[in-house]
Every structure is written in C-alpha cells, then in structure tokens.
Amino acid sequence: QIDKYAQRDLKKGLHLYGTDGNIGLTNAWSIIQTDFRCCGVSNYTDWFEVYNASRVPDSCCLEFSENCGLHSPGTWWKAPCYETVKIWLQENLLAVGIFGLCTAMVQILGLTFAMTMYCQVVKADTYCA
C-alpha cells in the first residue's frame, strides 16, 4: 500500500522536472537516473506523460549525449528507479542505520557538553558576582 502511494507521489513530482525553482529536484532525478542506471519511477514511459511525447530526459540514456532522450527506447535505461533505489536501500540498510545512529550520538553528545558548559558558566557567575 505504501509503495503505491510513494510511486504515485514520485510520478506527480516528475512534472516538476526542469521547471523554474526546482533545480534541486531536477538534479536529484538526473543523479539517480545516471548513477542507478534507471529511468522513470516504474519505467521510462512515466516521462511520456511529463513531456506529452515519446521522449525522456538525457539522464536516462545509456550513453549520454545532447538530446539523446529524443531517440528510440533502445538507447534508454529500462530499469525502474523506484525498485532499483528500494533494493539498494534494503541492501545497505545496516550502513544507513549505523550512519544515522552515529549522527544522533554526535548530536546528543554536543548537546550534553553544551549544557554542561552552560551550567559551569552560570555557576561561575554566581560566585563572582
């Protein structure tokens, strides 16, 4: 059920690709499609609705070149990005979890040391005043 909602929202987000003020989203899709060698959410035809034509972004091309997304589907990645990224996350869940826990520990230690230092400064001010 969650997969369907996520895929639906990602497909809606494709319509923002390349629009003004959405450079981060555009770059994210380009990087994902290039690095994971995939195209679209469920397949490359997701882009046909965005462009209202049989074309894809150049980041979907097997070999990148200017306007390569206008050529035939034989020159595009066939793998769905949603499934490809989902599998990658499942395979690397331990590393992602450890990274998250380490980041949380550093944050907690930073807060603890900051509070300890604050208490020492307040304590020193009461004796000096």
Series of H and E elements:
HHHHH
Q: How is the CATH topology named?
A: Cd81 Antigen, Extracellular Domain, Chain: A
Number of DSSP E strands? 0
The tally of structural domains comes to: 1
Query: Main sheet, how many strands, which sense, barrel?
Result: none
Oligomer: single chain
CATH architecture field: Orthogonal Bundle
Radius of gyration computed on alpha carbons: 23 Å
Structural account:
- With 129 residues, the chain is an all-alpha fold.
- The protein has a single domain, classed as Tetraspanin (Cd81 Antigen, Extracellular Domain, Chain: A), CATH 1.10.1450.10.
- The chain is 61% helix and 0% strand.
- It starts with a helix and ends with a helix.
- The mean pLDDT is 93.
- This is Tetraspanin-4.
Provide a compact summary of the structure.
With about 130 residues, this protein is mainly alpha-helical. The chain has helices spanning about 1-15, 25-35, 45-50, 80-90, 95-129. The protein has a single domain, classed as Tetraspanin (Cd81 Antigen, Extracellular Domain, Chain: A, Orthogonal Bundle), CATH 1.10.1450.10.
Q: What keyword list fits this structure?
A:
single chain; 129 residues; mainly alpha; Cd81 Antigen, Extracellular Domain, Chain: A; 5 helices; 61% helix; elongated
Per-chain topology:
Layout: H1 2-14, H2 23-35, H3 46-51, H4 81-91, H5 93-128
